[in-house]
Design brief:
heterodimer, A: mainly beta, seven-stranded mixed sheet, four-stranded antiparallel sheet, about 0% helix, globular, B: mainly beta, six-stranded mixed sheet, 11 strands, about 55% strand
Chain lengths: ~120, ~110
């Protein structure tokens, strides 16, 4: 247990469905992240929130919409997805994002992920 | 540009020592992290290096040479449970970590 939880753990959806992934961290962190991990590919950073403000959006298609209502919760809203969006979606959190040399506070702690299948 | 390279796969036997290399080319560098990821599970933090040299944590050690853009993770006294993917990730100022593709290590008896 890393202190980061994700629900649901598994999700199967059709291309016309709308669903949301939820992430919650109990570590008192201020930065949260969404990653996509497809088979045989590196972790792909999708979005970054630092103190509830979105600081990075790595050219993610608009069918993925993040929401960060507070520092402990992060959502990923999904609509009209494509089969190639099937992947493991991982949430992570860190104390903060420092501007200087990396510190322990940059260490990211990952949730167990949501395995998404788009039919 | 940003580029992080690791071997795709490695094999080793129980009790042995294995070294997983990582080379990186990034526009800025503030530190390097190593994560372990078992199949179907989330990555877990192993270590990080900011300055040149070796950091030792039990059976695992990590080395960094900033001038060479090079790091390695050293695993001693290998156990079957060490079979996993090992991810190298670079930290740049004010941004999230950039992950390599990972090295899948298989440990056999």
């Amino acid at each position: 247990e890393t202190g980061v939880t994700q629900t649901p753990r598994h999700l199967v959806m059709g291309m016309t469905n709308k669903k949301s992934l939820k992430c919650e961290q109990h570590l008192g962190h201020n930065a949260m992240y969404w990653y996509k991990q497809s088979a045989k590919k590196p972790l792909e950073l999708m979005f970054v929130y630092n103190f509830k403000e979105q600081t990075e959006n790595n050219s993610v298609p608009s069918r993925f919409s993040p929401e960060c209502p507070n520092s402990s919760h992060l959502f990923l809203h999904l609509h009209t997805l494509q089969p190639e969006d099937s992947a493991l979606y991982l949430c992570a959190s860190s104390q903060e994002i420092t501007a200087g040399l990396a510190q322990n506070t940059d260490t990211q702690y990952f949730g167990p992920g949501t395995r998404l299948t788009v039919l | 540009g940003q580029n992080i390279d690791q071997p795709t796969e490695m094999t080793a036997t129980e009790g042995a020592i294995v070294q997983i290399n990582c080379t990186y080319q990034t526009s800025g560098f503030n530190g390097l992290f190593w994560y372990q990821q078992h199949a179907g599970e989330a990555p877990t933090f192993l270590s990080y290096n900011v300055l040149d040299g070796l950091e030792e944590k039990g059976r695992f050690s990590s080395f960094l040479s900033r001038s060479k853009g090079y790091s390695y993770l050293l695993l001693k006294e290998l156990q079957m449970k060490d079979s996993a993917s090992y991810l190298c990730a670079v930290s740049q100022a004010g941004t999230a970590l950039i992950f390599g593709k990972g090295t899948t290590l298989s440990v056999s008896s």
